[in-house]
Each structure stands twice: as structure tokens, then as C-alpha cells.
Amino acid sequence: MKTPRELAVREDPKLKALWKKLVARVHAYEKESAEQWDVEWETVGAILDHSPPLYAFGGHRNAAEFLKKELGVEERVGRAYVRVARHATPEDEIAFGIWKLDAIIGFLEATHSPLAGGVAIAFAKVKIGGKRAVDLSIPAIKAATKSALAGKKSQPKTAFRDALARTFAKHGELAHVAVHEANGKTSFHGVPNAALRTFAEIVLETKLPR
Q1: Terminus-to-terminus CA distance in the chain, angstroms?
Q2: What is the 3-state secondary structure (H, E, C) of 37-96?
């Protein structure tokens, strides 16, 4: 059952208008040039990450339903497209392919930290094992990612970061927020302005270590 606040949000005429504007842009750029593919999937990301998610105004129950019905893709594929559109240029997408770029982003996140939305990556300069990542096969990149993640397990845990990152991952509009913990301090990068209220509420509600 919806709360009065949730019902009020669902009836917000400005958010309804924004949904209609963005979903129209998504469909306007479908199956067009590489530049327009970028616009299409960056716009999909804006719909997914808005607080509240704008797909609700189209009658979709969740991100998976929105991506399947409006764009004909599974959620895993749709989120990969959004991730690549945010971090790659159309030229990189043509030269190296969407799935190799997605694998490289996964490697960078495993070896560094989650990337804030919109951060451009110089893919041709990324190195894995001394070799250009773009020259490696996707299985080789994923193997390096798996190895990097395995190495992280042996490192001291960052309890506050881990607790907050797990909670953010459950909320589409905050899933790309980077959380850093070091020397007794926790910092955040990439919190969308539109999701600041949700961000604050989630931080306060997260069960943190004592």
C-alpha cells in the first residue's frame, strides 16, 4: 500500500512531464547513429537514476520491466549499455565494441572504485598486465577482473564503506555513487543532486558498525 507521500510523488505533474520528455527522447534516437545511441542510453540512465525512478510514471513496476517493455533488453544488458554510454565516446564504441568497453569498466571498478557517472575514460590508455586493455580479449579482461577481486578479499575490510555500498546498490539512483573509507573517514563521490534527499535518508537508515 502506498503512503500519502508516495502517492503524492506519483501524481507530480512535473515528474510526469519529465518522464514523457525523456522516454520520447529515448525512442527518438533508437537504432540511429553511434552519437544518438549515446544520447539514447544516457537518457535511459537519467530515467533509471532519477529519485524517484521516472519509469514509475510510465506504469512500470521496476527497472527490469521498464527496460524490457520500452527497449526490449534484459536489465543486465540495459545497465551495461548505460554504463558504456556514460564513460565512452561514440568513437570508442565503434572501434572497440560495447562489451569490451563494459568489461574494461568492470576491471577499473574492481581495481580502483566505482566510477561516478559521466567520468570519461581514455580506454586506449588503460593497461592490464602491461598490455593495452583494448587489445585483450573479453575473457582475458574478465579473468583479470576476477583475479583483482579475489585479491581484494584478502585486504582489510572497510566496514562502513561496505555497508553503505551494499545499501546504495539496492537503489538505482544511487547505484553509481562511489564510497571511500580511509583513516577513519568515509567520503562519497557522484551523488546526483536529484537524489540528495534519498541519499541522506539511506545513510541515516543504514545499519553501520559501532
Answers
A1: 34
A2: HHHHHHHHHHHHHCCCCHHHHHCCCCHHHHHHHHHCCCHHHHHHHHHHHHHCCHHHHHHH
Task: For 30-40, write each residue's pLDDT tens digit.
Answer: 666 778 898 89
* Phi/psi at 181 (5° precision): -135, 125
- The model's pLDDT over 33-89, given as tens digits with 9 standing for 90+, comes to 778 898 899 999 999 988 788 999 999 989 999 999 999 999 999 999 999 999 999
CA 1 to each of CA 5, 7, 30, 74: distance values in angstroms, whole numbers, following the listed order = 12, 10, 36, 28
Is there a contact between 167 and 206 (Cβ–Cβ < 8 Å)? yes
Strand partners, 128: 131
- Amino acid, single-letter form, for residue 139: P
The predicted model scores a pTM of 0.69
6-9 long-range contacts, CB within 8 A, separation 24+: 9/52
For residue 111, what is its C-alpha cell? 581495481
